[in-house]
Amino acid sequence: MGGYVLRRLVQAVFTVLGVMLLTFVLFRLVTGDVTAQFVSPKLGKEARVAWLRRNHLDLPMVLNLQRRLVFTDRTRGEGRFTAGDATGSRAAAAMLLERSDKGPGRADAGARVVSVPVQLLSLDDPLGRLTGGDPWVAGHKRGGGGDRDKDKDKDEDEDEDEEEDEEERAPGPAVVFTLRDGSELAVDLSPLADPNAPDRPAPGATVGDLVGRIDGDPNNAGRLGVEIGPIDRGRLFDSQFLWHLWESVTFSNRSYKTDELLLDVIAKKARYSLAISVPLLALGWLFAMVVSSVVAYYRASLIDKLGVFVCVLGMCVPFLVYMIIGQKIVFEIAPMAAWGIHNPANVYVPVAIAMIAGLGRSVRFYRTVILDQVKQDYVRTARAKGVPLYGILFRHVLRNCMLPILTSLVLSIPFLIMGSLLLERFFGVPGLGDLMVSSVSDRDVPVISGLTFLTAAVYVVGLLITDVLYAVFDPRIRLR
């Protein structure tokens, strides 16, 4: 049995890995860019990039082959090497030039400034890969003033015209490097701008043109070196998928919406789901087994026919109808118990409604399973010997028909923790089912992926336990 269990555990690992790969692909393709929902566009690109970096969404999908444009200060001094924009320029901001305090293999990492990381960056790549399509000249509002200034004085109109003329004469893109020796190096990037759209790089401008522009600047004279840095092999697997997998397994995801740790969220909300799902599973199984055993024992009698009719009738009624009618009845009797968790006893209302709604389907299934055993010779022998009804049903019949019953119970195992999505949402129970529904509408991907992993893990473990119980209830089964 040990070898079988080990083999199934290995299969379970690959099964869960496949589920996580599928959810990763779906979340990246279906949800698209979620930054607009969680980061205000008014905060600018820097805030968006910081949010992406904090959530590891700035990394490549699977393998990290990113490279950066590296600027090295070759001067000596006690100053701080930095890069910034000249007046009216946004080139440094568009390329996300930042001082690097880390440099593997570099003795003097503090003399480096790096650009935004780009996957497989090369000198032949368009310059737009560094800017990400962002303008590298500060934008200006122009035109549209005729109607707005219709009732203004003539002097105000002339002042606005002068301001527009000054904006049109604003300088082009330029990056200013402050070197460690205290000097400044201003590199004009206007020749690399698009003549038809000066606030953008020219379509034909490449990263190599930028490198040549900085190296060939007359004021540089070898003080500032620029090159494309190597791929950091230590971060080869520092990718979105590996972070997605690691954070889901360790439940270290943080909600995009509330920034709460997923483990804390599960610990807080799982108790509400368990308060509903555990009594529902236990009571529903107990009542279904008792009723189905009785109607199966008296097969073809009035009791059996009436029980089957009621079960089929109950199966035809949608689950939502049970919730609406049940909630209305409870609201007429005890309004405070019809919604929410104002009183701990409120959880028994959805439990009772869900148990009644699922009783018909369970009784029909268990009755069919039990009928196969009731027709066996050992049941007739037990009845002939005078064994009481409860002894025949619960000591002999149920033991022999336990395999399909266990299989059906496994399907309910994930809901022990996840709860019922519709039930919790309808009755205002803040459990994990309600959290899953709200996370889908809020596009809270970390919460969805974490709960998906939890469901998959619980499900495969439940299947393994079921296989082991097969051998316990049926001695003829051997796990190999």
Tell me the domain tally.
2
SSE order:
HHHEEEHEEEHHEEEEHEHHHHHHHHHHHH
Question: Helix count, per DSSP?
Answer: 19
Radius of gyration: 34 Å
The largest sheet has its strands arranged as 4-5-2-11
Strand percentage:
5-15%
Contiguous low-pLDDT stretches (5 residues minimum) are 140-169
Query: Fraction of residues in helices?
Result: 40-55%
Q: What is the structural class?
A: alpha+beta
How far is the first residue's CA from the last residue's CA? 6 Å
Q: What value does the average pLDDT take?
A: 81
Largest sheet: 4 strands, antiparallel
- How many β-strand runs? 11
Shape: elongated
Summarize the structure.
With 480 residues, this protein is α+β, with helices and mostly antiparallel strands. The protein has 19 helices and 11 strands.
List keywords for this structure.
elongated, alpha+beta, three-stranded antiparallel sheet, four-stranded antiparallel sheet, 2 domains, 11 strands
Can you walk me through this structure?
With 480 residues, the protein is an alpha+beta fold. The chain has two domains: 40-241, no CATH class; 258-442, MetI-like (MetI-like fold), CATH 1.10.3720.10. Helices cover 55% and strands 9% of the residues. The chain is built from 19 helices and eleven strands. The strands form four sheets. The chain has a four-stranded antiparallel β-sheet with strand order 4-5-2-11. It has a three-stranded antiparallel β-sheet with strand order 3-7-8. The chain has a two-stranded antiparallel ribbon with strand order 1-6. Strand 7 and strand 8 (184-188) form a beta hairpin. Helix 17 crosses helix 18. The termini are close together.
